[in-house]
Design a protein that fits this description.
This protein is of the alpha/beta class. The chain folds into three domains: 50 residues, no CATH class; 214 residues, 3-Layer(aba) Sandwich (Aspartate Aminotransferase, domain 2); 136 residues, Aspartate Aminotransferase, domain 1 (Alpha-Beta Complex). It has 13 helices and 13 strands. The strands form three sheets. The chain has a seven-stranded mixed β-sheet, sandwiched between helices. Strands 10-11-13-12 form a four-stranded antiparallel β-sheet, covered by helices on one side. Strand 4, helix 7 and strand 5 form a beta-alpha-beta unit.
């Protein structure tokens, strides 16, 4: 077939004319103004505001290729993911931080990094969301439940008898703004050469003996989601100061090798490369979370002010045990919890507190199933039947059922706190007997 008359028939490499001089098609950004407006709609701006945004914006204001919202080769620099991780390293006082798509991914990457898999065991608390146990099960490891104490955190006294030659990690979970008793937990782990992975999903910004949670064990895992103290959607963070564990966390989270200096090269050392997934956080989520993590210190300060203002006004009584604190100065305190002596009193107290205008809830022994206590972890029961039964973790089952919870609000004024404390005192004094000070 003869060449078109408009083109030189001699190949360009041999001195002929190039067939392609320039492209005349005009590209449009893959992601452009319409997507930006869609995000603005999700933020809830009024139609008037959206109209003004449309009037101000134009496709001409964007680069020809548009923004790159994935964290990948070619992502816009400076990367929001890089910036988010830098802020996390500073906030949690660690050497390394890696942003992932959610808290469960953070736990999964951390457990893969320490070698959790078939024929291994990971020790998790009896009270706390099922995700901590599920992450181990996803990798083929057996979750072993450790009972809690009156702090509702993992009981260090119950930990050591659970350690076997198959145990690779213990996951103390800092629940509901409080912190675990990390000192004795670390001592047990070090005696048996097992890793400590802190699940900090519900207590970012809390400290234990002035050290940020997440930086105390070998790895710290955070959930940065709409339901946690910070986060605007779905997100997670894994932190560590161990170089080797950091490499393994990235391999578990980014098995495509994007994290490596030479992406497709052979392993640089034994164990560097293994089967992983793709848990990277997007640049869009990172952009939100850069702002969120900068708010964390003020959020923690406000919560602590409210908790302390109310708690110091409350008496000790015979029929109620207040939740134990492993570090009163380190807890965040966005919930106030206590344990009435029985269901009858718990129901009465909750009802009376609501009548005072105070948000309170009491679960009770007949409460509906809840995936925050291990004897209701139904997705795991058929696979690990030997780990279940109320006799395994009686304290966690009892305390979770017998827990009276009062939700606190970081935005309450001192007057609000005084009014709430007054209402609690009215109810406690009506139903309970004060403990006389000696």
């Amino acid at each position: 077939m003869s060449s078109p008359q408009t083109l030189d028939s001699v190949p360009a490499i041999k001195g002929g004319m190039r067939a392609v001089q320039a492209m005349t098609g005009q590209p449009e950004p893959k992601v452009g103004v319409a997507e930006f407006i869609s995000v603005a709609e999700r933020f809830g701006f009024s139609e008037t505001a959206l109209t003004r945004l449309r009037e101000v914006l134009s496709e001409a204001d964007l680069p020809k290729v548009g923004p790159h919202l994935g964290r990948y080769y070619g992502s816009a620099k400076p990367s929001m993911g890089d910036r988010f991780e830098a802020l996390a390293r500073e906030a949690f006082q660690v050497k390394h931080a890696y942003a992932v798509c959610n808290g469960t991914a953070a736990l999964t990457a951390a457990l893969a990094a320490v070698g959790a898999g078939p024929d291994t065991e990971v020790i998790v608390p009896a009270a706390g969301f099922i995700a901590t146990a599920l992450a181990g099960a996803l990798l083929g490891a057996t979750p072993v439940f450790c009972d809690v104490d009156s702090s509702l955190q993992m009981d260090p006294v119950k930990l050591e008898p659970l350690v076997t030659n198959r145990t690779v990690a213990v996951l103390p979970t800092h629940h509901w703004g409080s912190v675990c008793d990390m000192g004795p937990i670390l001592r047990v782990a070090r005696r048996h050469n097992i890793k400590v992975i802190e699940d900090c999903a519900q207590s970012p910004g809390a400290t234990y003996h002035s050290q940020p949670v997440g930086s105390i064990g070998d790895i710290g895992c955070f959930s940065i989601s709409s339901y946690k103290l910070i986060g605007g959607g779905e997100g997670g963070m894994v932190v560590t100061s161990d170089d080797l564990l950091y490499d393994r966390i990235r391999q578990a989270s980014e098995a495509g090798g994007l994290w490596r200096p030479d992406r497709f090269a052979a392993p640089r050392y034994d164990g560097e490369l293994f089967v992983g997934g793709n848990f990277r956080m997007s640049e869009l989520e990172s952009a939100i979370n850069v702002v969120q993590i900068e708010k964390l210190p003020d959020i923690v300060t406000r919560h602590r002010r409210v908790w302390n203002h109310i708690r110091q006004q409350l008496p000790d009584v015979e029929q109620i045990t207040w939740q134990k604190s492993n570090d009163p100065e380190g807890d965040i305190g966005y919930m106030l919890r206590c344990f009435p002596k029985d269901d009858e009193l718990g129901v009465c107290l909750a009802k009376a507190l609501k009548a005072e205008g105070i948000a309170a809830s009491y679960r009770g022994s007949e409460g509906r199933p809840d995936w925050h206590v291990c004897n209701h972890y139904y997705p795991l029961m058929d696979r690990f039947p030997e780990q279940f039964g109320t006799e395994r973790c009686p304290v966690g089952t009892d305390l979770y059922n017998r827990c009276l919870t009062l939700q606190l609000n970081q935005w309450w004024s001192d007057q609000d706190c005084d009014n709430v404390a007054l209402g609690i005192n009215k109810v406690i004094c009506a139903y309970c007997t004060p403990i006389e000070s000696s």
